[in-house]
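Researcher: For the annotation table, I need structure tokens for Related to Ribosome-associated complex subunit SSZ1. Please keep the output clean. Sequence:
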Amino acid sequence: MFTPILGVSFGNITSTIAIVKQDKKSTLEVIANQDGERSINSALSYKQGNEYHGGQAIQQLVRNSKNTIVNFRDFLQYDKYSSIPKDLLKRCEDSCPLIDIGNDVPGFQYEIEAGVSVKKSVVEVTGNHFKQLKLAADDYTSTNFEKVILSVPESFINSEVTSKNLKEAAKIAGWNIIQFIGETASGLLSLTDSKVSVDHKIAKDGKDKNVVVADFGGYTSTVTVFAVRNNGIMTNLITKVDNNLGGENFDECLMTSLAKEFESKHKISGTLNDIRSKHKLKQAAIVTKKTLSNVTNAVIGIDSLSQGMDFHTSMNRMKYELTIMQIVNKMSNLVKSTIKEAGLDPLEIDSVVLTGGSSFTPKLNNAISFIFDEDVTSIISLVKGTESQHPDEMNSAGAALQGALLFDDETDELDQLVQHSIDVPHLDTYIGHLNAANEIEPIFLKDTPLPARKIVKLYKQVDDFQLTLYAANVEIKERQEEVGEKQPRELDEDESDYTDSDDEPEIIRYKVFNKGELLASAPVKSIGAKGCEVTYEISKEGSLKVAVRDIVSKEILTKIE
């Protein structure tokens, strides 16, 4: 019987939960909490004996900041308070601060009601956050979820300390973490299910491809290059992370810009030095950022921002994009440098997947699109209209889809089933055959996991031919495309006679496959009228076998071993 397994994405700023329903269509659904929030703030606040969670907790930051806990996820990487970098501690300086609660244990001290304070470790706080997520999922589905797939940064999975802390926090909530899955991997996995994805290449064609997944979160940006081969096997070629680059940088740029405008208007200073004013600006910046991602103008109104003075202004998208331009450039440069370090050219990337809440920024989408040739690479994002899922929800959706693959196995069997990754040999070159135009046509792409098998049908090949296989490599070439001569026309009175006929020719970059080592060659004769099919097999050890069969009779015409 199917065992419900919840997909959970745990972010610094927000968390999301998703489930694959037990209906005929196996519908995937991202679950909202009791307040209707599907993107749930990773925040807890305490006042007068009450615990507030999610958006309700964020609202407490203005008047109850010292009892409101935010930005606590990354502290799970540390068992000792003394080992936490000072820059990381600054994330909590305007809310409930992280302290040593005793024995060098990192945690928080807050008042649950007037005069009554408690100390909780980061693990315990995370457990309380997970409890609230579990409550939302259980209430919505009337199901007691005990098993979860948790989407977290790749570095968390590889850290014994972080994995242990996450499992302890999950246990507090009544969860058993069946598997950790990296955020970029879960983001990509969410697109491989045709039931929830729109009609883009990753979901539909099943071809081998290189895919970049760029996850732009609140504090962290992560870019991974995946080699997707053999109908869905994903190989992580490289992952680069910037832990100080994300949507928070957008907020800071906006806050600084708005504070300067307010101070200039009222001839005052120090607005950002006041915690209450800072939180008011922060909330206004977040709303403005989200608004300008959907429309071109935003109205901003903040009551009693500082010294009893209100602030009312407006901002258009162009001004916003100029304000965040430096951050956008850093994000697009991270994508470029990751591809380069993977040993690839942008022309070798088939798809780019943009995930994380910050990827819902039109300027960022445009900057990343500019890196690639639109005829070669598809940009998959909600902004571009090529994906229907919200980028905040893709990681939990991918985790839920992974959970749907797992059944109620015995523990020992399940542990084997959910290994995070498996090490297998991979091809270190392209392998292709010569086509009728005497050009290399790739059969196996570089980084294909072994063993591998491909069948190629040659319907038009009815004449005898020489089947020739080569190792191959990619070369990026350039050609000039001359600007066509423009036909002269009569000028209007207000037009100048300036001509751009001397424009420089456009440089066109393109990809070619060059022949390397000859791997095999054999004649193929007596082909039937319907053509032939060629089966290529590469063993785990790298040995190559080829069999050519008649499409109709299935008779073997040629065999290479």
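Researcher: And a one-line annotation?
Model: The radius of gyration is 28 Å.
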